Q: What sequence folds into this?
C-alpha cells in the first residue's frame, strides 16, 4: 500500500492525498510534477526510475488507511542526480 507522502522531496511543496500534482517512482519517491518534469527530467534522483502520477486514495480508504504525515526533508543530491542524468537521459524508463 502506498504511504502517500505529504511533500515534494525536492522543493518541499505540499502534496496532500488528493493532489493531482504528485508524481512517484516505483519506490514511491515523491515529487511535484514541476520538479519531476523540469528539474529531474523524469529521472528519479534516488533510484534512476521514471515517474507516474500518484493515484488518489478515495476518502473512505483514507479513513481506514491514512496517508503519511512524515514530511521528507526537501532537497536532492545534485551531484548524484547529474550521474543519473548522464546515464539515463535519452533512455525511456521502461528500458533503464
A:
Amino acid at each position: 500500500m502506498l504511504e502517500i507522502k505529504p511533500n515534494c522531496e525536492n522543493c518541499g511543496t505540499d502534496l496532500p492525498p488528493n493532489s493531482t500534482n504528485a508524481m512517484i517512482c516505483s519506490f514511491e519517491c515523491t515529487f511535484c510534477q514541476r520538479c519531476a518534469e523540469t528539474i529531474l527530467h523524469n529521472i528519479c534522483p534516488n533510484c534512476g526510475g521514471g515517474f507516474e502520477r500518484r493515484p488518489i486514495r478515495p476518502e473512505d480508504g483514507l479513513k481506514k488507511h491514512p496517508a503519511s504525515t512524515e514530511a521528507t526533508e526537501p532537497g536532492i543530491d545534485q551531484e548524484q542526480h547529474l550521474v543519473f542524468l548522464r546515464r539515463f537521459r535519452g533512455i525511456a524508463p521502461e528500458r533503464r
